[in-house]
Design goal:
By secondary structure, the chain is of the alpha+beta class. 16% of the residues lie in helices and 38% in strands. The protein has a single domain, classed as Hotdog Thioesterase (Thiol Ester Dehydrase, Chain A, Roll), CATH 3.10.129.10. The chain contains 2 helices and 6 strands. Belongs to the thioester dehydratase family. FabZ subfamily.
């Protein structure tokens, strides 16, 4: 996220535009749409949590709860969309690699039927490596939070 800093909010973005930014596909695509995106600054994305998610078959059959690691992954995917859109890399083949997680905390179970509001901000930008702070909310209530680092790079060569 280098060069001139654009601060004009963009959005909404539908799932097709999200898929142009990320290589993830079902069942690992965890962003359904983007509400707003301010390049080089922040993103507000949505994950509609459905009872049909494959992970609910085993986590847990009698009380379905979205695994915390997937909530963090959803925040990381939102950060990926933010990075790719900020650098105009959609459909470029570049990947955003998740490098580290710090301070992950889980406050409220995420159950089927929830709209998971994902709010991610850039906290540090060093070109190809960026730090982010993310929060996942349900109806305004904090469900999870984490700080994480990602790197933008070419995919591995075959």
């Amino acid at each position: 996220m280098t060069g001139e800093v654009e601060t004009t909010a963009r959005g909404p973005m539908d799932v097709r535009r999200v898929m142009a930014a990320l290589p993830h596909r079902y069942p690992m695509l965890l962003i359904d749409r983007v509400v707003t995106l301010v390049p080089n600054q922040s993103i507000h994305a949505i994950k509609a949590v459905s009872v049909n998610e494959p992970f609910f078959q085993g986590h847990f059959p009698t009380r379905p709860i979205m695994p915390g690691v997937l909530i963090v992954e959803a925040m990381a995917q939102a950060a990926g969309v933010l990075a790719v859109e900020s650098m105009n890399l959609a459909d470029s083949g570049k990947l955003v690699y998740f490098m580290s997680i710090d301070g992950a905390k889980f406050r409220t179970p995420v159950e089927p039927g929830c709209l998971l509001d994902l709010h991610v901000e850039v906290t540090q930008n060093r070109g190809a490596i960026c730090k982010f702070s993310g929060k996942a909310l349900i109806e305004g209530k904090l469900a999870a939070e984490a700080n994480f680092v990602a790197m933008i790079s070419d995919p591995p060569k075959d």
